[in-house]
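Bench log, entry 3. Co-assembly request; chain sequences pasted below exactly as received.
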Amino acid sequence: MTTGTKLATARLAEIVGGSNFFADPARLADYEIDGVRPSAAVRPGSSEEVAEVLKFAAAEKLAVIPSGARTKLGIGLPPRSYDLALDLTRLDRVISYDPGDLTLSVEAGISLRKLAGVLSERGQFLPLAVPFFGRATIGGTVASGVDSPLRQFYGTARDYILGMEFITGEGTLAKSGGRVVKNVTGYDIHKLMIGALGTLGVMTKVNFRTFPLPVGSRAFVATFETAERALEMRARVAHSPLTPITTEVLSPGVADLFYSDAAARIEVDAFAPGIITNRTWAFSAGFAGTEKVLDRCEAELRTIAEQCAAAGLTALSADRIPGAFGRKREFIPIALDSSPATTILKISMLPSRLKEVLAEIGAAAESDSLPWAAIARGIGIVYAALLPESKTDSSRARVVRAVDRIQAACARFEGHATIPWCPTEWKSHLQTWGAERSDLPQMRKLKTVFDPHGILSPGRFVGGL
Amino acid sequence: MDPRLLRELKKLLSAEAVLHEKEDLLLYEYDGSIDVARPNCVVFPRTTEDVVGIMQLANRFETPIVGRGAGTGLSGGALARHGGIIIGFSRMNRILAVDLENQRATVQPGVVNSDLSAAVAHAGLHFAPDPSSQKACTIGGNVAENSGGPHTLAYGVTTNHVLGLEIVLPSGELIHIGSAAADTPGYDLTGLFVGSEGTIGLVTTITVKLTRLPEAVKTLLAIFDSVDDATETVADITARGITPAACEMLDGWTLRAIEAYVHAGFPLDSAAVLLIDVDGLREAVESQAENVADVCRLHHAREVRVARDSVERDLLWKGRKNAFGAVGRLSPTYYVQDGVIPRTKLPVTLRRINEIGKKYGFEIGNIFHAGDGNLHPIILFDARDEKQLERAIATSDEIIQFCIQMGGSITGEHGIGMEKDRLMPLLFSPPELDLMRRVRDAFNPNGLLNPGKVIPSAKSCGEIHVRPLPVAGVPSA
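Structure output for the full assembly:
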């Protein structure tokens, strides 16, 4: 925002009101992304104001990056340019909530925690148990595409978002989908916005289907001498009649993270000692339902654990679940807090290949003496944290070597491996979004439709979109 | 049609895979909707390469091209609105791979929906989307329309089960999007293509999730003396957070039509029934069935029957799934609408539909996915009488307007096609329609693929198209 700065300042302040426009460098530091600081920030109070801001930005060719609580701005490539921070946290209202229909419409800047409070009053919830839960907003959660342990049963945001209102890179206010639970009217454009990191449009409202809170829940953690046995238990549960709401396989390194001070700070609910250890692998599963259903699940699970030669099985009663579940949900923040140079891979894979993937992660990390921890969701999503003790060049060389090896293996196994989090300085040495994608030309076509001037989060997404 | 194009198509596919005689084309003028449009030829590829070749020829000869599965669609999606080539996928009907361990299948678009479920039933799996036409409709068609079905209440619609696609773009380019693994990095192209009604690409291979069959299923038939009681029951079941696997409503009029045809055991003297499936673990099914029955009784259900065995269960569902066939026996033509409303608005909406019917002098039957709020009012009329047709369309439009007023939508699962494109401006602003148009044009720049569908052309907005109609079904004797 070098040329015409005065004009820009005046116009933007006029759109959002003077008190919602900042150009003060100290405050702008909060909006930095990968060390790039914007020239100004605005906090619009309505969809219409967002549209006006973007219209102006398009005319002036200002690069705009939308944000909510700014918990996940580390995801993606460093921005190619970044003039204006678009802070959406004033858009924090519930637009409509019809508990009888189990449908909800909210503004993008509402926090997950606030929303959870509104829904729980009516015995409902959204299955978005995502990292940074205490601070994150709906918009940031949806735009970043982070997932929830609950996807095992409830699917991802794409499965329960019914519609959306968003503003394109030309400042056009548009909606897609609707508010009803079943709808095939027009293209599902809102699906494109999910996980697009704000490169196609700025979400202003999101419509969801909500879910009834389970009447009861129980969780179990089984420990094993080897990864193979933990994975065997995963497979047996997957092929049983049971319908768990979460399943994970935890590597031994997870215990060091979950019993750390960082974990206790981030997830205040207690996690009783000895449930997992740093010498064993673990399989965990959560179930929901009536006592009768939970008893049946427990019985079956105990049989399966025995068949898989589990070293131990802990049943977590309702009061002990939050500490364990919260740690699984906050695995990424805990890992980020545990090393100055935490590098996190997100891997998606067919569940049958998890054994090979986990073996490869372990081998790659250990051959470079990198502490590591991995959580594998039963449906085939792995979050692997490499935890070097320092941010030195030598650490970087070791991490890059390990990551390259893991990414190459994932490509062989026909999966995907991206690096959502790593030190900014290392991004140029790593393939943040994984291997080059053959469908990139199709994505470019869409980028041109939604953001013809290339002002929305330029350069941060797959292929530098 | 350009004889050179025909020659080229025959050369590419062999002569027997190209239909172009008038009597051969008659079958392809229709789908399950009330629209009619005749193609210039119909071709039957066997491979992806064939599809690429056909697309290249369509481009070279600047001829429209429309994909078609079994032609069971209800919005004219598979009709050649502007003539040209229909590409029938019936010969691309192989299940290419089944991965039981990961619960995935890869199929060609012409595989019949229920054939896939049958092929994996031995492993306790199925393909969850179950449109009523599932014994005929193809998975390619399901992908194009993002089809639903009764059990999508609990299991989700087609888009929730599709992971990856191989697509021939209108340019003739072959692309692969999504993957058997979840969370493919990049924009959710699969999410965009599913439900795009064949307007931005032709799907040639589909990778889907397979779903475990439930351990136990109970089918309940709740019988009511008033439609209000039945709709209040559905609203209450929903509000209590009970999610049955399926929750269908059939009103008395429809019941009697079905009973005369299928003999499913529906009570002839009732005002409405709810056909409800609960499934899952044995222990869960027992308590859920009890809860559902309690809510039904609370709303004055005269009787709640539980199907004794799978035979009785299958018969009840056969009645439901053959409903439109049964209706076809009663009237030369019928018009099925597909509006959606919030479940809390079911009672008021059903009352309003009844009033609208009376106003226009039609008896309207209702058989629909009540649990989803997805209505299917059926308007019986005689298409040979142009006045009746106009009245039927006016009736339908008024119902749709009411659904929108209730915060709903104009189609829950049948698609926009060429039937409802004129209604799109009721839900979307001109800039929104323009955005959809630009998305389409980004992939389909010359408009050769399935022209005249989904998005109204700028000049046709607000017009009502009246077309000559087919005579559907067998008139009652």
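The longest strand of chain A covers residues 201-209. Residues 63 and 82 of chain A are 5 Å apart (CA to CA).
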